[in-house]
What we know:
Elements: E1 5-8, H1 63-73, H2 77-89, E2 94-99, E3 106-111, E4 114-120, H3 123-128, E5 133-136, E6 140-144, E7 149-153, E8 161-164, E9 172-173, E10 181-184, E11 196-202, H4 207-213
Parallel strand pairs: 4-11
Antiparallel strand pairs: 1-7, 2-3, 3-6, 5-10, 7-8, 9-10
Amino acid sequence: MGRARAGSARRPRPGSAAATAPAGGNRRGRGKAAGGSSGGGSAGPGAQEQPPGPGSFDLGAQSGRWAAFQERHRLSCEEAARLLLDAYEYRGLVKHAGGCHCGAVRFEVWASADLHVFNCNCSICTKKQNRHFIVPASRFKLLKGADNLTTYTFNTHCAQHTFCKTCGVQSFYTPRSNPDGYGIAPHCLDDGTVQSIVTEDINGKEWEKAVKEHKSIRDMSKP
């Protein structure tokens, strides 16, 4: 094996839960009609209304429902839009929360309530009992602790074994098999959102052969 090394943690890519909504939304913001003028002036002769571009929207007949929903739940325009996007993009999934032992690192991840967990027998996964399920990066969001993470790599240095500097717990990492996603430790999730766990053994001692022959592991980090 190559030399092992520890270094700065890979900063996780923000999940879609952090996606921003239309600019200009405030605590009681309302949807802005497409082509509306912020200055209140009238359009010049022959001027045509422009179609809504990215970041703007026309609520049309749903304006009243949108405003009432924001008011009832005390949501900003961004918060309401995030709820809508999450409900659509992650339908059939649940939002799990988790973190390390000391609480310095916290995250949320969208995944099934019925988890498919890999139990790898490679040298490092055996040493630290690294059972994990894989998700696309877009479904993972680090809530706190980016500055409290460090990363261990070895051999090919593809896998990023990220752990808390304070308590040493690895609650998530970047697998060699899925560098565009995250491996999440199911035992680091908070109680209440996992219904069942199915564990699949994978022969990490012959990693290249095992991954090549596996029918779906590479696809698990695809949105």
